[in-house]
Amino acid sequence: MAKAKSRVLSPGSGNPKGLGSRVQGLEQDPRPKTEDPQPESPDPLVRFILEAGQLKKLPRSGWLTINIKNPESIADHSHRTAVIGYLLAHMEKLGKAESGDVVIACIFHDLCEARLSDLTPLNKKYLKVNSQKAAEDIFCQIPGGKDVQSLAKNKKLMAIVSDADKLEMIFQAKEYADGGNRYALAWIESAEKLIKTNSGKRLLGLAKKTDSFECIVDACD
User: Fold this and answer.
1) No. of H helices and E strands in the chain?
2) Quick one: how far is CA 170 from the chain centroid?
3) Three-state DSSP class for 18?
């Protein structure tokens, strides 16, 4: 019985009937190609919240220059500034609405540093930054942003906010000094001259004569 001849396909041998069309059909997807969808721009409120979150990651950089290993973040500073601002507002006999405005201004007073970072006095000696433009660009994203910015025009409120800002740094410097960093005392000396309100001066005097660690231990008794 004669053996059946086998046929080996090769690039030059030709294809069986219909095979070429089937292979071509496999190689080419008949469905229309679509471009990858472009990512949507983030919602302004979401962007604002994420920018505010940057303050949790950025340290108060001045302390690094005196060898504070893990200084507080800008967000940490803003929180306690708001606490001090609330206390000062009541000590200064402000009404409920004005006290609330002080707290709001304190919370947001360093928000522009989400874009600028915390520049030290030495940095500012050589760099020119537009903090007002940075704040405008951030606050224009949200409803009520203009209301927050308008608080800066109220000199009475901003005097309290300024004192709260300086006092928070003084309290922090006192904690670092009580922990053994003698260079932190220079921060107290430079900031205490800038306190304006009577209530701020009273808190300053109390802070300077209080041992920050003994105070916490006493609270446990």
Assistant:
1) 12, 0
2) 21
3) coil
